[in-house]
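INTERNAL TRANSFER SHEET
From: sequence group
To: structure group
Subject: Metallo-beta-lactamase superfamily protein

Please process the attached sequence and return the structure record in the designated field. Keep the field labels unchanged so the import script can parse them.
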Amino acid sequence: MRFPWGTSDVVDLPTVGTRIDTFTDPAHVEGGPGARLQVARRQAQAFRREFPGTGTPDSITTCDLVTLPYPTRFGLFRASRALAPFLSITNRMLVIRWRDSDGRRRILLFEPSDVELGRYTPYFDNLSQHTPAVIERRMVREHGTVLDHLSRLGIAREEVDYLMFDHLHTQDLRRWIGTTAHQDDLGTTPTAIFPNAKVVVQQDELAAMAELHPLQKPWYQPATYRDVPAEAFLPIDGSIVLGPGVAVVKTPGHVFGNQSLVVNTATGIWVSSENVIATEALTPEHSRLPGLARWARQWQQEIVLNANTIETTADQYNSIILEKTLADRSQSDSRFLQFFPSSELTGMWTNPGTRPTFSHGHITHGPQL
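Return from structure group:
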């Protein structure tokens, strides 16, 4: 697999936002993962004090995309004692709007997955081929497409400034940002649906995708990036403030270039990523999911991570602690945090023992259309 740019070219692409100097790359922290964990806590506490001063966005709207099956042993790591081999997760997109200091309106789509093309991710494609159609229809529920939701919200495609994912697992961006050559499987040379949008992504992830490790291959679609235009990306190295109350924080571990969305709202700070699939995974002592509280107590684990890929597990654990430290308490149940999983655990009768104790379902901030 080769991208239309080399690894060195990624560094030279234009970027965006104001760099956050509070956070230190784990690779630059002296000592082992335990030392990095303590640094992550301190830095998150410092950023929690600073971040509200950046302001708040105008609005945040949650849009459901799809509910689909996911292996329990991945989503709840080694903690779950549920009999069900699969649980269900709901993928959601966040639409975030704000004004820059010069008054210009901005729109960020966080997790705008092209669900139709995402199905061809090797892992999910293989799962679909080995699942009877009648069962698949019961376990996969589509709620609305990215374009349907934007139409409902009155947002034109040309108005979208940024596309962002916590990582690029399953993502096929060809229809969103266009390609420079004919795509045989699509039967066309796609013109960008979002012609003015740039993809905010960590340099580390683009570099890793240029030559995937075998552990990564089931979850990426690298061939779909062969003909996408390099100028559609805004690679960043670390953490940035993108707008008032909108930050991108590097949280490596689930993938090398993982990143989390952090937003300041009327109810305080929210964090969103797929590092865990349920907010109770950050406070498992309060979970009624079979096995979680006992496992956390027995092994002195503060969190239960989402572990479909274990690229650097200790770093992922530390990143989740950073997220846990940043997020405010939920106003509806203070046992849980304002952590919004980009793929949230969803109870279904087909998956006994996997119904979450607590769910957010959505983030609401500002006017809702």
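Handover comment: The chain has eleven helices and 14 strands. The mean pLDDT is 92.
Transfer complete.
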